[in-house]
Design a protein that fits this description.
Layout (H helix, E strand, L loop, with lengths): L7 E5 L6 H12 L8 E5 L2 H12 L1 H6 L3 H5 L3 H7 E3 H7 L5 E2 L2 H10 L13 H7 L1 H11 L4 H7 L2 H6 L4 H16 L1 H4 L5 E2 L1 H10 L8 E4 L7 H11 L4 E6 L13 H7 L5 E2 L8 H18 L20 E5 L8 H10 L4 E5 L3 H14 L4 E2 L9 H14 L4 E2 H9 L22 E2 L1 H6 L25 H16 L10 E5 L8 E7 L1 E2 L5 H12 L2 E8 L5 E2 L1
Parallel strand pairs: 1-7, 1-8, 2-3, 2-6, 4-5, 6-7, 9-17, 10-14, 10-15, 11-14, 15-17
Antiparallel strand pairs: 12-13, 16-18
Helix pairs in contact: 1-2, 6-14, 8-9, 9-10, 14-15, 17-24, 20-21
Length: about 550
């Protein structure tokens, strides 16, 4: 047992049992006993921190618990400082540091082109940390408290290939990067440019411990090695510490989390949340069967009740269906019908791997389903472009369109449509009104031949670096969206993303791809299945593996 565990109180609850609600109630209780300045709440994502903060600051909620006078006494900035991610908190304790930003990356890449050899994505720190192979390797090795050679040695051949670079190249990049951050002559900003790793590292090395009386840690089971050191430092002057989470949902072992440690220290929690508010009976019982071997191993059993109808108090039944594939199987017509004809939400989720993702995306494209990535909200085809395809035939026939839509049409217009130089024309001298195609021809924006074309795909540029077959499928997809008269003003209801990206979310339907893409420890596989399946509020669809291995 570590030094500070005696003061910790554990709040544990299975999926959908209201951990956030309980933390808000706890906060309301604590501010009546402690100075609000001395209470710090830490979560592991900005989304989770924002949700806790918003619920605490909700006037109706605070009045219910008779603490509104205390809550309204502090401004938004106060709550952002006291309820945040661990990175934000640690950064707030650094003085004079400059955060590594897009300008830094551009300058770094200018000096050393090896940084961009295998990367052409976003240049902000958040995107680099998630997508750039060097920053990902640096992050995961640090999360596990391992030097580059030690971390490299732990990886499988499959994992090493994902990092693109060789080990000597990664070491060379890191040497240059660390020097760049501390040399003003190189980075042109500061002698202390920091990334997410540095924020926690410099906090951990600071001689002074923060004066925190109450520390609340949400999703504690997801803490990496450096983060656990930071939490221990934050606890040193605390009178009471609450760790909330669920060890059975600890799926970040690859990023330094320690599911075994958290399972052992929280086996007998101080408070256990039991009433589920998400999963109906069928899904609840299935998820308990999935996680049962872990409960048995650590010698505990969670009481996790299924969701009840708020009006009648009766347990909601729910559904679970098998899917042999996404081409032809007995239950697939039912899924397709619900995708097209209900307002329910759907998540297609998987462990990882292009093979799994391609199967999902090919199905959604074939069916003409409007969808996006959950984490990035990227859509296969942007709504503005679909609107261009939808409205261009009428525009060509003489119907006037508003200026905004005309600007959108110009974004991808080719030389058949636009006169030279008008692809990026800003229309700043045009009145904000509707225009006809012939008006714009007369004004010299569109070519005289533009009126000959009846479809937008005839006058738009082909997607760059996209084969003709893929361009054809893209156009087919757009035509299906238009034919089905899908309302683009409505929110997207169908999403896809990997299991790690959807943790903490919920959807009416979960389509869970059972494919295992590489060998993983049994308990890791059970936790991944448990997390993925327990996102479902109504129906769970189990999609059979295509890799031969099953999560």
């Amino acid at each position: 047992m570590d030094l500070y565990s005696l003061m910790r109180k554990f709040i544990v609850g299975p999926p959908g049992t209201g951990k956030t609600t309980r933390l808000v109630e706890l906060y309301y209780d604590l501010i009546q006993k402690y100075n609000m300045e001395s209470i710090i709440t830490i979560s592991h994502t900005n989304v989770a921190a924002d949700e806790i903060r918003d619920r605490i600051r909700d006037e109706k909620n605070a009045k219910k618990y008779k603490v509104w006078d205390k809550i309204k006494a502090n401004n938004k900035k106060f709550y952002e400082d006291h309820i945040s991610t661990i990175h934000s908190y640690c950064k707030s304790k650094l003085f004079g540091a400059q955060v590594f930003d897009e300008e830094c990356y551009i300058e770094l890449d200018r000096q050393n082109k090896l940084f961009s050899r295998h990367y052409h994505g976003g240049k902000d720190l958040k995107t680099l940390s998630k997508r750039h192979p060097f920053w990902r390797f640096l992050g995961f090795s640090t999360d596990n408290d391992l030097r580059f050679p030690e971390y490299w040695k732990k990886l499988s051949d499959h994992d090493r290939k994902e990092y693109k670079y060789t080990l000597p190249q990664l070491i060379s990049l890191n040497k240059y990067y660390q020097k760049f951050k501390t040399d003003y002559k190189l980075n042109k900003k500061s002698s202390n440019v920091v990334d997410f790793i540095d924020m926690i590292d410099q906090f951990n090395k600071a001689p002074k411990d923060p004066d925190i009386k109450v520390l609340i840690v949400d999703e504690a089971q997801d803490s990496s090695v450096p983060q656990r050191k930071a939490l221990a430092k934050m606890e040193k002057n605390a009178e009471i510490v609450y760790w909330a989470g669920d060890p059975d949902q600890s799926i970040y072992g690859f990023a330094g989390a320690d599911p075994d440690y958290f399972s052992r220290i929280s086996a007998q929690p101080d408070e256990e949340l039991k009433q589920g508010h998400r999963c109906p009976r069928v899904i609840n019982e299935y998820c308990k069967q999935v996680i049962a071997p872990i409960w048995q191993h650590y010698g505990y059993t969670r009481t996790w009740k299924p969701r009840e109808d708020k009006k009648t108090g009766k347990v909601i039944e729910g559904e679970k269906h098998p899917l042999e594939n996404l081409e032809r199987c007995p239950k697939l017509p039912l899924l397709i019908d619900r995708l097209h004809n209900t307002d329910e939400t759907f998540i297609f989720t998987y462990r990882g791997g292009n093979e799994c993702l391609d199967r999902i995306l090919n199905f959604l494209k074939k069916e003409g389903i409007r969808y996006s990535s959950y984490g990035t909200e990227n859509k296969f085809v942007k709504d503005w472009e679909i609107n261009c395809h939808r409205n261009f035939p009428d525009f060509a026939a003489g119907k006037p369109l508003d200026l905004k839509l005309i600007k959108d049409i110009c974004k991808k217009g080719n030389a058949l449509l636009l006169e030279r130089g008008y692809q990026k024309f800003d229309f700043k001298d045009f009145q904000k009104r509707d225009y006809t195609l012939h008006e714009l021809i007369n004004k010299g924006v569109f070519t005289p031949k533009a009126s000959q074309y009846k479809k937008y795909e005839q006058v738009k540029h082909k997607e760059s670096r996209t084969p003709d077959l893929e361009n054809f499928k893209r156009t087919e997809y757009i035509n299906k969206i238009i034919k089905d008269n899908i309302d683009l003003k409505k929110d997207v209801k169908v999403f896809y993303d990997n299991i790690h990206s959807i943790k903490g979310t919920e959807f009416d339907n979960v389509i869970f791809d059972e494919s295992l893409i590489r060998p993983e420890p049994r308990f890791d596989r059970l936790r991944l299945r448990y997390v993925g399946c327990s996102r479902a509020k109504k129906t769970l669809w189990l999609l059979k593996t295509i890799t031969g291995g099953t999560l």
